[in-house]
Amino acid sequence: MFLMETYKRLPVKFVRGEGVYLYDEKGKRYLDFLSGIAVNSLGYGDPELTEAICRQAKELLHVSNLFENPWQEELARELVKHFWTEGRVFFCNSGAEANEGAIKLARRYFYERGEKRYRLITFYKGFHGRTYGSMSATAQEKIQKGFEPLLEGFDYAELNNFDSVLKALKKETAGIMLEVIQGEGGINEAEAEFLQKVQDLCRKEGLLLIIDEVQTGIGRTGKFYAYRHFGLEPDIITLAKGLGGGVPVGAIVARKEVSEAFKEGSHGSTFGGNALACRAGLVVVKRVEGLLPHIERVGEYFRQKLEELKAGKVKGRGLMLGLELERDCSQIVLRALEEGLVINCTAQRVLRFLPPLVVEEKHVEEAIDILRRVL
Ligand SMILES: Cc1ncc(COP(=O)(O)O)c(C=O)c1O
Questions:
Q1: 112-161, pLDDT tens digit by residue?
Q2: Distance in angstroms between the alpha carbons of the first and the last residue of the chain
Q3: pLDDT digits (tens, 9 = 90+) for 195-222
Q4: Is the distance from the beta carbon of residue 127 to the nearest atom of ligand 1 less than 6 Å?
Q5: Do residues 267 and 109 touch, judged by C-beta distance below 8 A?
Q6: Which end of the chain is more exposed for a tag (fewer CB within 10 A), N or C?
Q7: What local confidence, expressed as pLDDT, does residue 4 receive?
Q8: Does 128 contact ligand 1 (Cβ within 6 A)?
Q9: What is the Cα–Cα distance from 18 to 22, expressed in whole angstroms?
Q10: How far apart are CA 60 and CA 308, in angstroms?
Q11: How far apart, in whole angstroms, are the C-alpha atoms of residue 117 and residue 127?
Q12: Buried residues in 73-89 as b, exposed as e (16+ CB within 10 A)
């Protein structure tokens, strides 16, 4: 009643979570295969994460980025450890903010070099967020409509169509930004050969390769960062969602040389990377590191079980999977909810599955039983 009506909410009120299960106010149990849209990496009530958050809340929630923050430094070291080369990190609070910062960093990088390059090539069906920069990077009419004029400087191409990338290329192009699996766009996977060509083009033309790992990052697809499946070497990646395990935190990781374009005062955030967020992130990243083989194994099992349903095309990797149907899937989401399974429908016809990374084979079987009934 007092909220803006920006969300179409499903008719259930969750009041508690435990492991991979959620409970509503009447005590009904639901198996969660959405994780707050790829956020709750360790599920609900994880003892280690809860303990770290409680302890940090007692010690110190927040100071400001005017002061040293040991937790930021430690979390940055972990994120860079999984990057392909020496890197530096900027912390913010969300995916949109991370992408906004990446857009600024790309522009600033060429400014520092004295080159008038500011445009980015992004992809149809991609999703990068709702702020002006990230929304302008999001080549979807339904996201942009009514908010024009957009931020200038974006040229759109089609995923897996290299000719369309060449067509979008201009002398002012600064970089190419993409998701290796488009999440909101319907679990659309970029092909390895296409990605390689994009990277080669970036090298040849001196463009920055920016990979939005907001949904795919932090283990979701079975590698710590999803670009690692393709042997890519991006200049900038952006993170959020799963990084804090439910505590809001986002990050930009950039190759050291690129990161140096941000100087004292170039960019900032009051809350970005505060003690609580980084302490939570630290628990998540360390645990996810050990979970990677588990994610690959359970993801593969889940994929097989989805294939066996023979209900549509199975898409995605690891624990970021989609089932593309021939029909609208919003009713199926409602039916699944009645049966005690939380899933989501994206791009109208794609059932999307993003379970907590700690999900096990027995939970996959439970989800498949429900899906078989509702499909
Ligand atoms: C790939 C990708 N980038 C960016 C965003 C925006 O993140 P946030 O909602 O945290 O601003 C999302 C959110 O769904 C996303 O999936």
A1: 999 999 999 999 999 999 999 999 999 999 999 999 999 999 999 999 99
A2: 34
A3: 999 999 999 999 999 999 999 999 999 9
A4: yes
A5: no
A6: N
A7: 97
A8: yes
A9: 6
A10: 50
A11: 23
A12: eebbebbbebbeeebbb
Per-residue pLDDT averaged across 260-267, rounded?
Answer: 97
Q: Which atom of ligand 1 is nearest to the CA of 241?
A: 10
Query: What is the Cα gyration radius of the chain?
Result: 20
CA atoms within 13 A on the CB side of 286: 12
Atom of ligand 1 nearest to the CA of 99: 4
Q: Is the pLDDT of residue 1 over 90?
A: no
The reply to whether ligand 1 has any atom less than 6 angstroms from the CB of 239 is: no
- Ligand 1 geometric centre to CA of 369 (Å): 30
Q: List 22's β-bridge partners, or say none.
A: 17, 30
- pTM as predicted: 0.98
Pocket test for ligand 1, best of 143, 178, 215 (most atoms within 8 A of CB): 215
Residue 108 in tokens: 């600033």
* Alpha helices, H only, 239-309: 256-259, 275-309
Q: What is the pLDDT of residues 48-76, one digit of tens each?
A: 999 999 999 999 999 999 999 999 999 99
Q: Which residues lie below 8 Å from residue 211, measured CB to CB, with a gap of 6+?
A: 177, 178, 179, 180, 225, 226, 227, 232, 234, 236, 237, 238
SS3 of 327, please? coil
Task: Check pocket membership of 320 for ligand 1, CB cut-off 6 A.
Answer: no
Residue partners of 7: CB distance under 8 A and separation at least 6: none
Per the structure block, which two tokens stand in for 287? 């645990």
Are 214 and 99 a contacting pair, CB within 8 Å? yes
Q: Can you read off the two tokens belonging to residue 208?
A: 């920055």
Residue where the block lists tokens 């993003």 = 354
Please report the pLDDT score of residue 220 as a whole number.
98
Crossing angle for the helix pair 47-59 and 275-309, to the nearest 10 degrees: 160
Strand partners, 82: none
187 close to ligand 1 (CB < 6 Angstrom): no
| Minimal-distance CA residue to ligand 1 atom 9 | 95
Residue 281 has pLDDT above 90, yes or no: yes
Q: Which two tokens stand for residue 342?
A: 């939380």
Domains in the chain (CATH in brackets) are: 49-285 (3.40.640.10)
Q: Which atom of ligand 1 is nearest to the CA of 183?
A: 16
Q: Which atom of ligand 1 is nearest to the CA of 179?
A: 1
**Residue 114, CA atoms < 13 Å, CB-side half-sphere:** 0
